[in-house]
Amino acid sequence: MGDSFFNCCYVPPHPPGEEEPQRPRRSEIMASHPAHISPDKRFLIFFDFDETIVDETSDDMVVQAAPGQHLPGWLTDTYQPGRYNEYMQRVLAYLAEQGVTESDIRSVMEKIPATPGMLTLFQFLRNRPAKDFEVILVSDANTYFIECWLRRVGARQLFHRIFSNPATFNKDGRLVLRPFHSHDCPRCPDNMCKQVIVRDYVARRTQERGRPYQRIFYVGDGANDFCPALSLGPRDVAFPRRDFPMHRLITETHEAQPGEFKAVTVPWVSAEDVVQRLRKLVAD
Ligand SMILES: [Mg+2]
Ligand SMILES: [Zn+2]
Question: Taking the model in full, what pTM does it have?
């Protein structure tokens, strides 16, 4: 089913030898009033990107575009814990200095495999009635990597909003990355707390709609997906990738502080596990 989705929906990003048409990237992604989202959606579903939608970490994969497919030690030595965003800014600057182009980076991104079952989950969401799912992506990768990949599999239109670190090419052909925001959550890296994003989004949309969602879902894998999932309530469902950090943190919290983590927890190995549970929940 995943393969058939891929085949029927795959559209080459642009014909060989032709320039890709200019798209309003940042304005489209960052628009603060998504007027096209209908107010009657029953469910809100959040997705992480790296190791959740794609089966790799895009920041690691981009190294394949570097000369010799590796980064020099003087560069990797500059990484400091909690300052990952600044480190990636330096990596992207290095790639540009080495002559790596936008099309080199895009072709690396487009080769990243989907996580098992993920395209089936996308197809399930797409085939539901329009009033069912509002679909949001929250990622500490960057807008450029995510847009490349989603367009490649024909899934860009599924996502009503993408929250990620803004990244655009400057006139010198360098991909310039910036932090998403600043916050004071002690659990999260300086540039992004997904709980702040999720809370703000749910509060704003609930006000715009004039009523809450029936349920909120969160599909993720990382430690930075645990923080937003903590804000979910007892009718909501957290879908942590089994045996990944988000799952371990939920399990540890259940043991150390019972009642602190409120959402129903459904670990998944294939995203088809997520489809099975959603099928039951939307039938309620
Ligand atoms: Mg992740
Ligand atoms: Zn946080």
Answer: 0.87
